[in-house]
Amino acid sequence: MDRTLPSHAQRRNARRPWLIGGAVLAALVAGLVAVRSVLQPRVAAGQLLTAVVEVGDVEATLSAGGTVVPAREASIAAPIASTIRRVVRQVGDEVRAHEPILELDTEQAATALGKLRDEQARHHNRTAQLTLTLERAINDLRAQQAAQQARVGALQAALRDEQYLLNIGGTTAENVRQAELNLRVADLELRRLRDQTRTQHRAAAADQREVGFQLAAQTRDIVEHERRLRQATISADAPGVLTWVNDQLGATVAQGAELARVADLSAFRIRATIADSYADALHPGAPVIVRLGTSGPELRGRVSTVNPAVEKGAVTFYATLDDPRHAALRPQLRVDVFVVTSRQVRTPRVRNGPFYQGAREQPVYVVRPDGRAERRTARFGESNFDWVQITGGLRPGERVVVSETKSFTDAPELLITD
Protein backbone atom coordinates (compact mmCIF):
# COMPACT_ATOMS: atom_id res chain seq x y z
CA MET A 1 0.00 0.00 0.00
CA ASP A 2 1.46 3.32 -1.15
CA ARG A 3 2.26 6.09 1.26
CA THR A 4 1.79 9.77 0.63
CA LEU A 5 5.14 11.71 0.55
CA PRO A 6 5.56 14.63 2.81
CA SER A 7 5.09 18.04 1.24
CA HIS A 8 8.71 19.09 1.67
CA ALA A 9 9.87 15.94 -0.15
CA GLN A 10 7.50 16.67 -2.96
CA ARG A 11 8.89 20.23 -3.34
CA ARG A 12 12.46 18.89 -3.33
CA ASN A 13 11.64 16.40 -6.04
CA ALA A 14 9.96 19.15 -8.08
CA ARG A 15 13.03 21.41 -7.86
CA ARG A 16 15.53 18.67 -8.74
CA PRO A 17 15.15 18.93 -12.59
CA TRP A 18 15.57 22.70 -12.40
CA LEU A 19 18.62 22.36 -10.22
CA ILE A 20 20.14 19.79 -12.56
CA GLY A 21 19.34 21.98 -15.60
CA GLY A 22 20.84 25.07 -13.93
CA ALA A 23 23.96 23.16 -13.01
CA VAL A 24 24.33 21.90 -16.57
CA LEU A 25 23.77 25.45 -17.95
CA ALA A 26 26.30 26.93 -15.52
CA ALA A 27 28.78 24.25 -16.52
CA LEU A 28 28.22 25.08 -20.19
CA VAL A 29 28.65 28.83 -19.60
CA ALA A 30 31.78 28.22 -17.55
CA GLY A 31 33.08 25.94 -20.28
CA LEU A 32 32.40 28.55 -22.99
CA VAL A 33 34.09 31.26 -20.94
CA ALA A 34 37.04 28.96 -20.32
CA VAL A 35 37.30 28.05 -24.01
CA ARG A 36 36.95 31.68 -25.05
CA SER A 37 39.61 32.75 -22.59
CA VAL A 38 41.89 30.03 -23.91
CA LEU A 39 41.20 30.87 -27.60
CA GLN A 40 41.20 34.68 -27.16
CA PRO A 41 44.46 36.23 -28.49
CA ARG A 42 46.78 37.35 -25.75
CA VAL A 43 49.35 40.07 -26.32
CA ALA A 44 51.98 41.25 -23.88
CA ALA A 45 51.72 44.93 -23.08
CA GLY A 46 55.43 45.35 -23.86
CA GLN A 47 54.83 44.21 -27.45
CA LEU A 48 52.24 46.90 -28.18
CA LEU A 49 52.68 50.56 -28.96
CA THR A 50 49.70 52.70 -28.08
CA ALA A 51 48.82 56.35 -28.51
CA VAL A 52 46.04 58.54 -27.17
CA VAL A 53 43.65 60.29 -29.54
CA GLU A 54 44.08 64.03 -29.08
CA VAL A 55 43.04 67.28 -30.74
CA GLY A 56 45.55 69.21 -32.82
CA ASP A 57 46.63 70.25 -36.30
CA VAL A 58 47.33 67.79 -39.12
CA GLU A 59 49.28 68.85 -42.21
CA ALA A 60 48.90 66.65 -45.27
CA THR A 61 52.34 66.18 -46.82
CA LEU A 62 54.15 64.56 -49.73
CA SER A 63 57.45 62.85 -48.93
CA ALA A 64 60.63 63.72 -50.82
CA GLY A 65 64.34 63.07 -50.42
CA GLY A 66 66.63 66.05 -50.09
CA THR A 67 70.19 67.23 -49.67
CA VAL A 68 71.52 70.30 -47.89
CA VAL A 69 73.35 72.56 -50.34
CA PRO A 70 74.89 76.03 -49.93
CA ALA A 71 72.46 78.88 -50.45
CA ARG A 72 75.02 80.49 -52.76
CA GLU A 73 77.60 78.52 -54.72
CA ALA A 74 79.55 80.17 -57.54
CA SER A 75 80.94 78.14 -60.42
CA ILE A 76 84.16 79.48 -61.92
CA ALA A 77 84.70 78.68 -65.61
CA ALA A 78 87.83 78.79 -67.75
CA PRO A 79 88.03 82.18 -69.52
CA ILE A 80 90.26 80.75 -72.27
CA ALA A 81 91.09 77.37 -73.79
CA SER A 82 94.30 76.41 -72.05
CA THR A 83 96.02 73.95 -69.70
CA ILE A 84 96.23 74.00 -65.91
CA ARG A 85 99.68 75.24 -64.91
CA ARG A 86 99.44 75.55 -61.12
CA VAL A 87 96.90 74.82 -58.35
CA VAL A 88 97.14 77.31 -55.51
CA ARG A 89 94.29 76.30 -53.17
CA GLN A 90 92.75 72.93 -52.25
CA VAL A 91 89.20 71.76 -51.53
CA GLY A 92 88.05 72.89 -48.10
CA ASP A 93 90.25 76.00 -48.02
CA GLU A 94 88.67 79.31 -47.20
CA VAL A 95 89.34 81.86 -49.92
CA ARG A 96 89.02 85.61 -49.94
CA ALA A 97 87.65 87.68 -52.78
CA HIS A 98 90.11 87.81 -55.73
CA GLU A 99 92.49 85.38 -54.01
CA PRO A 100 94.16 83.06 -56.61
CA ILE A 101 92.85 79.48 -56.76
CA LEU A 102 94.71 78.14 -59.82
CA GLU A 103 96.63 79.44 -62.82
CA LEU A 104 96.25 78.67 -66.52
CA ASP A 105 98.91 78.67 -69.22
CA THR A 106 98.54 81.95 -71.18
CA GLU A 107 101.06 81.42 -73.99
CA GLN A 108 98.53 80.35 -76.60
CA ALA A 109 96.09 83.10 -75.63
CA ALA A 110 98.87 85.72 -75.75
CA THR A 111 99.78 84.57 -79.26
CA ALA A 112 96.17 84.88 -80.37
CA LEU A 113 96.02 88.37 -78.87
CA GLY A 114 99.17 89.35 -80.77
CA LYS A 115 97.60 88.16 -84.03
CA LEU A 116 94.54 90.26 -83.35
CA ARG A 117 96.67 93.34 -82.77
CA ASP A 118 98.60 92.71 -86.01
CA GLU A 119 95.34 92.34 -87.91
CA GLN A 120 94.09 95.58 -86.42
CA ALA A 121 97.28 97.36 -87.52
CA ARG A 122 96.76 96.04 -91.06
CA HIS A 123 93.21 97.34 -91.01
CA HIS A 124 94.46 100.77 -89.94
CA ASN A 125 96.90 100.74 -92.86
CA ARG A 126 94.19 99.68 -95.31
CA THR A 127 91.99 102.43 -93.93
CA ALA A 128 94.65 105.02 -94.66
CA GLN A 129 95.11 103.63 -98.18
CA LEU A 130 91.39 103.67 -98.81
CA THR A 131 91.15 107.25 -97.61
CA LEU A 132 93.90 108.33 -99.99
CA THR A 133 92.30 106.49 -102.93
CA LEU A 134 88.92 108.06 -102.25
CA GLU A 135 90.42 111.53 -101.92
CA ARG A 136 92.28 111.07 -105.23
CA ALA A 137 89.12 109.94 -107.03
CA ILE A 138 87.08 112.84 -105.65
CA ASN A 139 89.80 115.35 -106.56
CA ASP A 140 89.88 114.00 -110.12
CA LEU A 141 86.11 114.33 -110.39
CA ARG A 142 86.25 117.87 -109.05
CA ALA A 143 88.90 118.80 -111.62
CA GLN A 144 86.83 117.27 -114.42
CA GLN A 145 83.78 119.11 -113.14
CA ALA A 146 85.68 122.45 -113.11
CA ALA A 147 86.98 121.88 -116.65
CA GLN A 148 83.52 120.98 -117.87
CA GLN A 149 82.10 124.04 -116.16
CA ALA A 150 84.63 126.19 -118.10
CA ARG A 151 83.73 124.43 -121.36
CA VAL A 152 80.03 125.07 -120.75
CA GLY A 153 80.83 128.76 -120.22
CA ALA A 154 82.78 128.89 -123.49
CA LEU A 155 79.96 127.15 -125.37
CA GLN A 156 77.45 129.60 -123.93
CA ALA A 157 79.56 132.51 -125.22
CA ALA A 158 79.89 130.83 -128.61
CA LEU A 159 76.13 130.39 -128.83
CA ARG A 160 75.58 134.04 -128.05
CA ASP A 161 78.06 135.00 -130.80
CA GLU A 162 76.35 132.76 -133.36
CA GLN A 163 72.95 134.19 -132.45
CA TYR A 164 74.30 137.75 -132.84
CA LEU A 165 75.87 136.92 -136.22
CA LEU A 166 72.59 135.32 -137.34
CA ASN A 167 70.77 138.54 -136.51
CA ILE A 168 73.15 140.59 -138.67
CA GLY A 169 73.33 137.94 -141.37
CA GLY A 170 76.88 136.88 -140.63
CA THR A 171 76.12 133.15 -140.09
CA THR A 172 73.56 130.51 -140.84
CA ALA A 173 70.77 128.98 -138.72
CA GLU A 174 72.56 125.64 -139.01
CA ASN A 175 75.57 127.02 -137.12
CA VAL A 176 73.29 128.33 -134.38
CA ARG A 177 71.61 124.93 -133.99
CA GLN A 178 75.03 123.25 -133.81
CA ALA A 179 76.14 125.69 -131.10
CA GLU A 180 72.94 124.97 -129.11
CA LEU A 181 73.52 121.19 -129.44
CA ASN A 182 77.09 121.51 -128.26
CA LEU A 183 75.94 123.48 -125.19
CA ARG A 184 73.26 120.91 -124.28
CA VAL A 185 75.76 118.07 -124.55
CA ALA A 186 78.22 119.97 -122.36
CA ASP A 187 75.47 120.68 -119.78
CA LEU A 188 74.56 116.99 -119.64
CA GLU A 189 78.20 116.06 -119.12
CA LEU A 190 78.50 118.65 -116.34
CA ARG A 191 75.41 117.26 -114.55
CA ARG A 192 76.83 113.73 -114.92
CA LEU A 193 80.08 114.80 -113.31
CA ARG A 194 78.21 116.50 -110.46
CA ASP A 195 76.09 113.37 -109.85
CA GLN A 196 79.18 111.17 -110.00
CA THR A 197 80.94 113.41 -107.49
CA ARG A 198 78.00 113.18 -105.04
CA THR A 199 77.82 109.40 -105.53
CA GLN A 200 81.53 109.09 -104.93
CA HIS A 201 81.16 111.07 -101.69
CA ARG A 202 78.42 108.75 -100.45
CA ALA A 203 80.38 105.64 -101.47
CA ALA A 204 83.45 106.98 -99.68
CA ALA A 205 81.43 107.62 -96.51
CA ALA A 206 79.93 104.07 -96.66
CA ASP A 207 83.37 102.50 -97.14
CA GLN A 208 84.74 104.47 -94.22
CA ARG A 209 81.84 103.39 -92.00
CA GLU A 210 82.41 99.74 -92.95
CA VAL A 211 86.08 100.03 -92.09
CA GLY A 212 85.14 101.75 -88.85
CA PHE A 213 82.80 98.85 -87.93
CA GLN A 214 85.56 96.33 -88.60
CA LEU A 215 88.02 98.28 -86.50
CA ALA A 216 85.49 98.62 -83.65
CA ALA A 217 84.81 94.86 -83.73
CA GLN A 218 88.53 94.12 -83.64
CA THR A 219 88.98 96.55 -80.77
CA ARG A 220 86.25 94.76 -78.79
CA ASP A 221 87.89 91.39 -79.51
CA ILE A 222 91.23 92.70 -78.33
CA VAL A 223 89.72 94.13 -75.14
CA GLU A 224 87.92 90.80 -74.47
CA HIS A 225 91.13 88.81 -75.03
CA GLU A 226 93.03 91.14 -72.72
CA ARG A 227 90.33 90.69 -70.05
CA ARG A 228 90.49 86.90 -70.38
CA LEU A 229 94.25 86.97 -70.11
CA ARG A 230 93.96 88.94 -66.88
CA GLN A 231 91.52 86.27 -65.63
CA ALA A 232 93.87 83.41 -66.44
CA THR A 233 94.74 83.45 -62.74
CA ILE A 234 91.45 81.96 -61.47
CA SER A 235 90.02 83.62 -58.37
CA ALA A 236 86.70 83.94 -56.54
CA ASP A 237 84.53 87.02 -56.87
CA ALA A 238 83.39 86.74 -53.24
CA PRO A 239 84.75 85.08 -50.07
CA GLY A 240 83.75 81.50 -49.34
CA VAL A 241 84.94 77.91 -49.08
CA LEU A 242 86.40 76.02 -52.01
CA THR A 243 84.09 73.01 -52.47
CA TRP A 244 85.64 71.66 -55.70
CA VAL A 245 88.64 72.40 -57.92
CA ASN A 246 90.12 70.76 -61.01
CA ASP A 247 93.56 69.92 -59.63
CA GLN A 248 94.84 67.92 -62.63
CA LEU A 249 98.08 69.71 -63.53
CA GLY A 250 98.63 69.89 -67.27
CA ALA A 251 95.04 68.96 -68.06
CA THR A 252 93.58 70.65 -71.13
CA VAL A 253 90.43 72.68 -70.46
CA ALA A 254 88.08 74.21 -73.01
CA GLN A 255 86.83 77.76 -72.77
CA GLY A 256 83.82 77.78 -70.47
CA ALA A 257 84.73 74.49 -68.73
CA GLU A 258 84.16 74.46 -64.97
CA LEU A 259 87.37 74.83 -62.98
CA ALA A 260 86.24 75.42 -59.39
CA ARG A 261 83.26 76.03 -57.11
CA VAL A 262 83.23 78.42 -54.18
CA ALA A 263 80.34 78.30 -51.72
CA ASP A 264 79.13 80.47 -48.89
CA LEU A 265 78.77 77.90 -46.08
CA SER A 266 77.19 80.35 -43.68
CA ALA A 267 73.70 79.78 -45.18
CA PHE A 268 72.05 76.78 -46.81
CA ARG A 269 69.03 75.66 -48.80
CA ILE A 270 67.57 72.28 -49.77
CA ARG A 271 67.74 70.48 -53.10
CA ALA A 272 65.09 67.74 -53.20
CA THR A 273 63.58 65.23 -55.61
CA ILE A 274 60.04 63.87 -55.66
CA ALA A 275 58.18 61.41 -57.89
CA ASP A 276 56.91 63.05 -61.07
CA SER A 277 53.38 61.87 -60.24
CA TYR A 278 53.31 64.59 -57.56
CA ALA A 279 54.64 67.33 -59.86
CA ASP A 280 51.25 69.07 -60.12
CA ALA A 281 51.24 69.60 -56.33
CA LEU A 282 54.56 71.46 -56.45
CA HIS A 283 54.59 75.22 -56.86
CA PRO A 284 56.83 78.05 -55.64
CA GLY A 285 55.78 79.21 -52.20
CA ALA A 286 54.45 75.85 -51.00
CA PRO A 287 55.38 75.21 -47.32
CA VAL A 288 57.90 72.45 -46.59
CA ILE A 289 59.09 70.67 -43.47
CA VAL A 290 62.71 69.50 -43.39
CA ARG A 291 63.67 66.81 -40.90
CA LEU A 292 67.39 66.51 -40.12
CA GLY A 293 67.71 62.81 -39.28
CA THR A 294 65.50 60.65 -37.07
CA SER A 295 66.23 62.63 -33.91
CA GLY A 296 67.31 65.92 -35.43
CA PRO A 297 65.39 69.18 -35.49
CA GLU A 298 62.63 70.08 -37.92
CA LEU A 299 63.07 73.22 -40.00
CA ARG A 300 60.38 75.09 -41.90
CA GLY A 301 60.73 76.65 -45.31
CA ARG A 302 59.10 77.14 -48.70
CA VAL A 303 59.57 75.84 -52.23
CA SER A 304 61.58 78.43 -54.17
CA THR A 305 62.04 76.93 -57.64
CA VAL A 306 60.80 73.83 -59.47
CA ASN A 307 62.74 72.29 -62.34
CA PRO A 308 60.20 71.55 -65.10
CA ALA A 309 62.30 68.72 -66.54
CA VAL A 310 61.64 65.13 -65.43
CA GLU A 311 64.73 62.95 -64.97
CA LYS A 312 64.39 59.21 -64.25
CA GLY A 313 60.82 59.65 -63.09
CA ALA A 314 61.62 62.40 -60.58
CA VAL A 315 61.25 66.18 -60.40
CA THR A 316 63.90 68.35 -58.74
CA PHE A 317 63.00 71.40 -56.69
CA TYR A 318 64.74 73.80 -54.29
CA ALA A 319 63.47 75.06 -50.94
CA THR A 320 64.62 78.06 -48.93
CA LEU A 321 64.66 77.76 -45.15
CA ASP A 322 63.25 80.14 -42.57
CA ASP A 323 66.51 79.59 -40.64
CA PRO A 324 69.17 78.99 -43.30
CA ARG A 325 71.97 79.38 -40.73
CA HIS A 326 70.83 76.65 -38.30
CA ALA A 327 73.76 75.04 -36.48
CA ALA A 328 72.72 71.51 -37.53
CA LEU A 329 72.95 72.23 -41.26
CA ARG A 330 75.91 70.69 -43.09
CA PRO A 331 76.65 70.56 -46.83
CA GLN A 332 75.54 67.33 -48.56
CA LEU A 333 73.59 66.22 -45.46
CA ARG A 334 70.73 63.88 -46.42
CA VAL A 335 67.37 65.05 -45.09
CA ASP A 336 63.70 64.12 -45.31
CA VAL A 337 61.54 66.76 -46.96
CA PHE A 338 57.76 66.97 -46.59
CA VAL A 339 55.82 69.24 -48.93
CA VAL A 340 52.67 70.51 -47.20
CA THR A 341 49.61 70.29 -49.47
CA SER A 342 46.84 71.11 -46.93
CA ARG A 343 46.28 71.70 -43.22
CA GLN A 344 43.50 70.65 -40.85
CA VAL A 345 43.25 72.80 -37.72
CA ARG A 346 42.15 71.47 -34.28
CA THR A 347 40.99 68.08 -35.48
CA PRO A 348 41.09 64.67 -33.71
CA ARG A 349 44.38 62.98 -34.49
CA VAL A 350 46.55 60.06 -33.43
CA ARG A 351 50.23 59.28 -33.83
CA ASN A 352 51.09 57.61 -37.13
CA GLY A 353 52.43 54.10 -36.92
CA PRO A 354 52.54 50.65 -38.56
CA PHE A 355 48.81 50.14 -37.84
CA TYR A 356 47.85 52.77 -40.46
CA GLN A 357 47.64 51.34 -43.98
CA GLY A 358 46.62 54.55 -45.77
CA ALA A 359 42.96 53.58 -46.21
CA ARG A 360 40.15 56.00 -45.48
CA GLU A 361 38.47 53.34 -43.32
CA GLN A 362 40.07 50.39 -41.50
CA PRO A 363 39.79 48.40 -38.25
CA VAL A 364 41.77 49.48 -35.18
CA TYR A 365 42.08 48.20 -31.62
CA VAL A 366 40.98 50.49 -28.79
CA VAL A 367 42.37 49.73 -25.32
CA ARG A 368 39.74 49.59 -22.56
CA PRO A 369 40.38 50.21 -18.86
CA ASP A 370 39.87 46.48 -18.10
CA GLY A 371 43.05 45.57 -19.97
CA ARG A 372 41.37 44.39 -23.14
CA ALA A 373 41.47 45.92 -26.63
CA GLU A 374 38.33 45.85 -28.73
CA ARG A 375 38.24 45.87 -32.51
CA ARG A 376 36.56 48.95 -33.96
CA THR A 377 36.27 50.53 -37.41
CA ALA A 378 37.77 54.02 -37.64
CA ARG A 379 37.68 56.56 -40.45
CA PHE A 380 40.73 58.62 -41.35
CA GLY A 381 41.39 61.84 -43.28
CA GLU A 382 44.69 63.59 -43.97
CA SER A 383 48.00 62.15 -42.79
CA ASN A 384 51.70 62.87 -42.60
CA PHE A 385 54.79 61.27 -41.18
CA ASP A 386 53.76 62.02 -37.58
CA TRP A 387 49.95 62.23 -37.44
CA VAL A 388 46.78 60.73 -38.89
CA GLN A 389 43.55 62.72 -38.87
CA ILE A 390 40.51 60.89 -37.41
CA THR A 391 37.15 61.69 -39.00
CA GLY A 392 35.03 59.06 -37.22
CA GLY A 393 34.95 55.98 -35.00
CA LEU A 394 37.31 57.28 -32.30
CA ARG A 395 37.01 59.99 -29.65
CA PRO A 396 39.67 62.19 -28.05
CA GLY A 397 41.12 60.52 -24.95
CA GLU A 398 40.79 56.93 -26.23
CA ARG A 399 43.95 54.87 -26.44
CA VAL A 400 44.65 53.12 -29.75
CA VAL A 401 47.12 50.37 -30.65
CA VAL A 402 49.45 51.94 -33.23
CA SER A 403 51.87 49.03 -33.66
CA GLU A 404 51.52 46.22 -36.22
CA THR A 405 48.16 44.39 -35.89
CA LYS A 406 48.13 42.09 -38.94
CA SER A 407 48.75 38.93 -36.83
CA PHE A 408 45.40 39.32 -35.03
CA THR A 409 43.49 41.66 -37.31
CA ASP A 410 40.41 39.36 -37.38
CA ALA A 411 40.08 38.97 -33.60
CA PRO A 412 37.17 40.98 -32.18
CA GLU A 413 39.02 41.45 -28.90
CA LEU A 414 42.53 41.20 -27.49
CA LEU A 415 43.61 40.32 -23.98
CA ILE A 416 46.56 42.48 -22.95
CA THR A 417 48.77 40.79 -20.37
CA ASP A 418 51.47 42.24 -18.19
Order of helices and strands: HEEEEEEHHEEEEEEEEEEEEE
The helix count comes to 3
What's the alpha carbon Rg, rounded to whole Å? 51 Å
Low-confidence segments, ≥5 residues, pLDDT <50?
32-39
Tell me the β content: 35-45%
Please sum up the structure shown.
The chain is α+β, with helices and mostly antiparallel strands and 418 residues long. It is 37% helix and 36% strand. The chain is built from three helices and 19 strands.
Give me some keywords for this one.
single chain, 418 residues, alpha+beta, 6-stranded antiparallel β-barrel, 4-stranded antiparallel beta sheet, 19 strands
Which SSEs are present, and which pair or pack?
Elements (H helix, E strand, L loop, with lengths): L6 H33 L2 E3 L5 E3 L1 E24 L4 E6 L6 E2 L4 E5 L2 H62 L4 H58 L2 E3 L4 E6 L6 E2 L4 E18 L11 E5 L6 E14 L2 E8 L12 E18 L9 E7 L4 E12 L3 E6 L6 E3 L11 E5 L1
Parallel strand pairs: 1-19
Antiparallel strand pairs: 2-18, 3-10, 3-14, 4-6, 4-9, 5-8, 6-7, 8-10, 10-13, 11-12, 11-14, 12-13, 14-17, 15-16, 15-18, 16-17, 16-19
Report on this model:
- The chain has three helices and 19 strands.
- The protein is of the alpha+beta class and 418 residues long.
- The strands form two sheets. A six-stranded antiparallel beta barrel has the order 3-10-13-12-11-14.
- Strand 12 (298-311) and strand 13 form a beta hairpin.
- Helix 2 packs antiparallel against helix 3 (173-230).
- The longest helix has 62 residues, at 107-168.
